[in-house]
Structure formats: C-alpha cells, structure tokens
Amino acid sequence: MEEVLPTLARHATRSLRIHSDHENEQIAPPESSPSLALHEFIAGGIAGSAGIFVGHPLDTLKVRMQMLPAGSSSTSISTLLVNPQYGSVWKGVGAPVAMAAVLNAQIFLTYGRSTRLWNEYFDARREDPCVLRDAVCGGLTGFISAAIMCPTEHVKTRLQIQQKSNVLAGSRETSNVVYRDSRHAVQHIYGKYGITGLFRGVSATALRQGPSFAVYFASYNHLREIAAEHRCNDSLILSMTAGGIAGSLSWAVVYPIDVIKSRIQAMPLDSKLNHSITAVTRQFLQENGWMGLYRGFWLTVIRAFPVNGVIFPTYELTLKALKSTETTR
C-alpha cells in the first residue's frame, strides 16, 4: 500500500507549492515543465516497483498470518517460511508490479488536483502546510484508489495463500485450480466469475484505503514540516524516517480492516457463505477474538522502514539519471 506513497507525497506537495507560486507570479518556473513531471512520474513508478519487490516477502508472511485459523501453532515466521505447502514468498508479486504505474498516476493526479481545488475554495494561504487539507485530500485519493487496488490485491492474496494441496486458507473446500501466476489468476477469475469476481472485497478495500491515505499524507507532510522548522537538512534520512513513521501510523489505524479484507478475498469464489464485511467480521471475532485483528501487524511496521529505505534512493537516482539523459540530448 505504501510503496508509491512516499515519493508521491513528496513531489505532489512540491508541485502544489509550484502551482501556487505560478499563480502569484504568472511565470512558469523550470520545475513545472512537462519533462520534469514526466521524469517524476517515471521515477515514482520505478521507485514504487522497487519498494514492492523489497516489501513483498514480508507482505506475503503478513497475509499468511492473517489467514491462520484460531489456535494455530504455525504463527512464527520460521514456521511459515519452511512450510512446503505455501511455496515461495514471492508469489503474487506480478499483480502489484504490473499496476504500479497506473496506481502511481491515479494517486498523483487525484491528490494533486484535489489539493489545488481545496486551496482554491477553502484556503487563501496556499503555500502553508495544512493537516486537514492533506487528510481530506489524501482520504479522497485513497477511496478512489480502491478501484485499482482491489483487483490487484485480490489476485495477489489468492496467490500468496495458495497451497500446493489446493486447499484455500480458512476453508475446508478444495479448489480445482492452481493459479500459475498473476495473469493466469486474472484470466480464470474474470472468465468464470466476471468483473464482480475480480472486485471481490472492494468495499473493504475502500474502507482501508481512505483512512490509510488520510493518515499517511497528513502525518508524512506534518513530520517533514516539523523537521524543516528544526532545520533538518538531510532530505534522504528525513524522508525515510517520515515515510516509515507515517506508514506505521496509517497501518495501525486500518490494520483490522485489512485483516477482514484479506479474509473476504481469500474465501472461495463459488462459496455460498455471506462475504459481507459485517458477516466476515462477526465470524472472525467469534473464532479469533479482538487480538486476532492485529495478527501480523508488527511485520507491517518492520516492512515500512526498508521499503522507504529503498524507495527514496531509487527515486532520487532515477530522477538524476533521467535529468542527465535530458541534458545530453
């Protein structure tokens, strides 16, 4: 979820300030050129993909922990890693990588446009930090992103929990299909269950994305403003730290709904069981209790920091390489 957010939060905020300066001065600064916007988009997509690769193994372990039945003795990482039924922790990585550029574009455009509209109608001091603006616009961006995230994470989740015995996690039913990869999973799910099959769990995804993005954008930008006030000049360390803390905070708020989302998307597609949020939550709490809603949470906290640690250097190096290529032309 947070693989593309740090760089987007960073250059969306910068674009917001440039837009404000442009309105005041009526002169387009060099930073607002279309080529720079394209470079930032490409760098953001590459950095986001790098973050996905780094964070995917821990994400897979998190999802598998979420699927474990109550009272399971296989809750340790070592047990999940050596379990021959699950296979590689890289299962399902294809879907989020394939959609990284699309998600990158949607978040950048939605957040950038919504913040400019906010400033136009509600805030005359456009260059000033505003936690409420970041939270509202971030939340709106998150809700809209569910349209991209839902099918992507549905496919990812099914591959992550798919066992070699064809038994779907959390179910006594068996599946006659073993998905070879993300493309095969999409083809099968869409071919047999249609678009509604691919979008299984879209409501839960939206309930997770909205609050998560609201917390992330608000806390990330606020932390950067605090650091700026204290004259912290190391932008790389600052961005990594702010991104890690913001990612951990956003996950702390929405992790329970992420567990329910994973459960909904892991249910057999032809099951007659009620897969609504309320029904799945009620059943989950009866079997696992409230503490079960945070099973595997610490993995997401650990994951947030190395993901941000890879994203920012990758983003900066890619942007630098693109700029140097443009200069030599």
User: SS-based structural class?
Assistant: mainly alpha
Unreliable stretches: 18-32, 166-174
**Count of discrete alpha- or pi-helical segments spanning 4 or more residues:** 11
- Gross geometry: globular
Q: What is the alpha-carbon Rg in Å? A: 21 Å
Tally the beta strands: 0
The major pleated sheet works out as: none
Strand content: under 5%
Question: Helix fraction?
Answer: over 70%
What gap, in angstroms, lies between the N and C termini?
36 Å
- Round the mean pLDDT to the nearest integer and report it: 82
Order of helices and strands: HHHHHHHHHHH
What is the element layout, followed by pairings?
Layout: H1 5-25, H2 34-67, H3 77-82, H4 94-98, H5 100-121, H6 131-161, H7 182-198, H8 202-229, H9 235-266, H10 277-288, H11 297-328
Helix pairs in contact: 1-2, 1-5, 1-8, 2-5, 2-11, 5-6, 6-7, 6-8, 8-9, 9-10, 9-11
Describe the structure.
It is a single chain. With 329 residues, this protein is mainly α. Helix content is 73%, strand content 0%. It has 11 helices and no strands. The protein is globular, with a radius of gyration of 21 Å. 43% of the residues are buried.
Notable characteristics:
329 residues, mainly alpha, 0% strand
Structure described in brief:
With about 325 residues, this protein is mainly α. About 75% of the residues lie in helices and about 0% in strands. The longest helix has about 35 residues, at about 35-65.
